[in-house]
Write a structure and sequence with these properties.
The complex is a heterodimer of chains A (about 130) and B (about 170). Among the domains of chain A are: about 30 residues; about 30 residues, no CATH class. Helices cover about 30% and strands about 20% of the residues of chain A. Chain A has 2 helices and 5 strands; from the N terminus they run E-E-H-H-E-E-E. Chain A has a 3-stranded antiparallel β-sheet, with no helix packed on it. A two-stranded antiparallel ribbon of chain A has the order 1-2. In chain A, strand 3 and strand 4 form a beta hairpin. Chain B has about 170 residues and is mainly beta. Chain B has 2 domains: about 45 residues, Beta Barrel (Thrombin, subunit H), CATH 2.40.10; about 120 residues, Thrombin, subunit H (Beta Barrel). Chain B is globular, with a radius of gyration of 16 Å. Classes of the chains: A alpha+beta (about 130), B mainly beta (about 170). At the A-B interface, strand 1, strand 2, helix 2, strand 3 and strand 4 of A face helix 1, strand 1, strand 3, strand 4 and strand 5 of B. Strand 2 of chain A pairs antiparallel with strand 8 of chain B, so a sheet runs across the interface.
Chain lengths: ~130, ~170
């Protein structure tokens, strides 16, 4: 079920290098999440620690960026921050109310499970009247 | 998953937890799309379909899916690129594959909204809550080693206009 295709990226501005892609079908049953406060041995603990460290480094970098912006604003000397200090592009600017949009869209999204003799696959679809497409 | 759908038993779990049996109405492996019908569903809330041609790079988007089987997971990001050609092989079980090489190709919307296995077929919404894409694949640097590294911020969605065109075709035929 979980294919591991190679996808050539042939964007007009890109080279024809091969790019490993995964289809987004989930082949495993829902993972058991331990109750909060309860620890559970994890086979990839080393990898998880690495991931946490990477996140911490990224967070530190973000804080550094904000701090740099504030310093630049103060260097101006007139007590006001220039617009350029707050123009850093982010993936989720404040003007997108994700919570409000989510409230609107979630009831229209369903999960599809395909059960076969050799396992299950899980995906999600958006409903359209009585039909759903995926 | 399209090829799986043609061979397996389908269960649709609604957002409120109800589970319904479903059947395949149509499949289009060459588009990586299928149309299902949930049996006994009478109060579904249809999603609004947006115009994927009006999408711009940098537009904010929200993805909903079941990564790792976790239904109703919401992630957000931006449109990273448009018209990205994605060619996927690996639907070997499908008897419907039309390409002699078993490949499926389409021009995708690229996004940095986190997508992972289980997001397949999930909608990609614009800031107005309209579906502008159907999530389908992600870049995975380690997939060639037989492992998935999870989202690295490069995901792909089939444009909603392609899906709408397919839905119109199915509606005309039925």
């Amino acid at each position: 079920m979980s294919q591991q295709p190679e996808v050539p990226d042939r964007n007009s501005n890109a080279s024809d290098e091969t790019m490993p892609l995964l289809l987004l079908t989930h082949p495993r049953p829902e993972p058991k999440v331990p109750p909060s406060g309860q620890t559970q041995p994890h086979p990839n603990r080393k990898k998880r620690v690495t991931a946490v460290l990477a996140a911490a480094i990224l967070t530190a970098g973000a804080v550094g960026g904000v701090t740099g912006g504030l310093i630049s604003a103060n260097v101006g000397g007139d007590g006001t921050a220039s617009e350029s200090t707050s123009s850093t592009a982010t993936a989720n600017p404040a003007n997108l109310d994700v919570s409000a949009v989510t409230k609107k869209i979630l009831p229209s999204v369903v999960q599809v499970t395909v059960t076969m003799p050799n396992g299950e696959a899980v995906g999600s679809v958006s409903s359209s009247a009585r039909t759903v497409a995926f | 998953m399209v090829s799986d759908a043609a061979h397996g038993q389908l269960t649709v779990t609604l957002n409120d937890g109800r589970e319904l049996d479903a059947r395949v109405v149509s499949t289009a492996p060459e588009r990586d799309l299928a149309v299902l019908q949930a049996e006994g569903a009478n109060d579904l809330r249809p999603a609004a379909i947006g115009d994927s041609r009006s999408v711009n790079v940098g537009d904010q988007v929200i993805a909903v899916g079941s990564p790792a089987g976790l239904q109703g997971t919401v992630t957000s990001g931006v449109v990273s690129a448009l018209n990205r050609k994605v060619t996927v092989s690996g639907e070997p079980r499908s008897p419907y594959t039309q390409s002699s090489t078993g490949e499926t190709s389409y021009r995708a919307v690229q996004t940095d909204a986190a997508l992972d296995q289980g997001n397949s077929g999930g909608p990609l919404f614009n800031a107005n809550g309209e579906v502008i894409g159907i999530n389908s694949a992600m870049y995975s640097p380690s997939s060639m080693l037989g492992q998935s590294s999870g989202s690295v911020g490069i995901g792909f969605a089939i444009p909603s206009n392609d899906a709408q065109e397919y839905l119109n075709t199915v509606a005309e035929e039925s």
